[in-house]
What we know:
By secondary structure, the chain is α/β, with parallel strands linked by helices. The protein folds into 2 domains: 2-312, Purple Acid Phosphatase, chain A, domain 2, CATH 3.60.21; 323-552, Alpha-Beta Complex (5'-nucleotidase,  domain 2), CATH 3.90.780. It contains 14 helices and 32 strands. The strands form 9 sheets. Strands 1-17-16-2-3-4-5 form a 7-stranded mixed sheet. The protein has a 6-stranded mixed sheet with strand order 7-8-12-13-15-14. Strands 24-19-30-21-31 form a 5-stranded mixed sheet. It is globular and about 80 Å long.
Amino acid sequence: xxxxxxxxxxxxxxxxxxxGCSDKKTEVPQEDIVxxxxxxxxxxxxxSIGYAGLASYKKMMMExxxxxxxxxxxxxxxxxxxxxxxxxxxxxxxxxxVGYDFAIPGNHEFDYGVDRFFHLVDKSExxxxxxxxxxTGKKDNPLEKIKPYEIVTYGDTEVAYIGISTPETLSKSTxxxxxEDGEFVYNFAEGDGTEFYTTVQTYIDECxxxxxxxxxxxxxxxxxMESSPYTSTELVSNIxxxxxxxxxxxxxxxxxxxxxxxxxxxxxxxxxxxxxxxIGKVVISASGTISVGLVDxxxxxxxxxxxxxxxxxxxxxxxxxxxVAKSDIALSTTNEAGIRLVRNRESTIGxxxxxxxxxxxxxxxxxxxxxxxxxxxxxxDITYADVVAVHPYGNTLCTAKVSGQEIADILxxxxxxxxxxxxxxxxxAGENGSFMNVSGIKYTIDTSxxxxxxxxxxxxxxxxxxxxxxxxxxxxxxxxxxxxxxxxGEYVLASHNYLLKEKGSGATFxxxxxxxxxEGMSDYQMLxxxxxxxxxxxxxxxxxxxxxxxxxx
Length: 553
């Protein structure tokens, strides 16, 4: 009786906090159909609402209607220590306990390797969906485990769920994971968008032909400019027949956005943000209304799931909580307004990471892409887990002999989207996961010059076709002074295997370079060594402010 009352009170609260929009359909289910959704959890198992809160809310919905589904739109298994230490398995275990019905692969589902991803698919009790992934290799087709869609019958109503993974996966995970014998064997319908839109439309039409009354697209697409032509907005504008798009990838919090499809019909688009800050909720009501919105506060926890999570955390708690450094300041990926800097500006944490690569790697230049810096370092005690969260991908330190021209080219790739403005509509302006944070080097980005970087249809670098945006590249010499880079000169560049060996950021030009350190220590262990051995456990003096390594004009 007490439990039921708690659920009732929670329902009242949640209803008050549910924001979104709705649309009317002619097909009317016998009882409400509730679809709960998450995206970009990134191992935030007990942050904000948390998985225990999600499980509680799901149970409450199941007391109201027999038709409840739970889906995830990707990037669940990577992002914090719990994901790195288990290569995603702990997260899948928790999701199984919560009771997910469907999931789609985000780009980060592949960060532990393709084989590991399919191992997680095998272990998952949720059906993975992705309509736009094809395998053309010579091995047994692993995609047989993944369906393009699933049609579920709720009473006399048919609801189709179609999965869509971003074609950016090829470049925003590790490109070589998708290759065999040096050739790509996985295809995500990448290109100018034509194949992508056509592929999705084909499966929408197929679901309609099979009698689906409602079509829900589960997308890992996002709304960021850098993801064009694969954004959810562009997709909706080029297809017809979908009712709702549940989106992910850009970490945007969108209670509901209405977009007109190719036929002029309204499509409801929503995204929950990241790390379970919200629960997404679609209701196909018995009155024929589709509503989409977010539950942004829910304070009840499922005790069984809480205990299960506590049990997993206890397995690695001692190591996770080991203090490796102290700091009087915090190093943040964002500014005071919450705008993510590491993808469009020099930042203290970007400088710290790049310095670690350069100094531990004994290199001339250190580089790390902004998309590879995933968390802040706190003021006070810095634990092992805090450091792992900064570099959670399991990449390794690499150093290679490179030319000055190759350095100039990778900086140009990173500056493709850079703008003079820091913020645009509450998001980082011109952010780019390939934006290069640097050490031992400084440079200027002239935003008055339009980027002329040319990529192929897999986002691999071809050339800089026009005037370069990156100017005044200076290299720190042995005397501790900056001097102009020599494009025909040779330098030692320290970064990670993703950039130097795996064609990360589309950098194909390092393939034939001589490596000095070929996949050395893990990148998070490198950060720990830099903290403890070089900085003697204290960040405060060196990283209290930026140094002018990157000038944007």
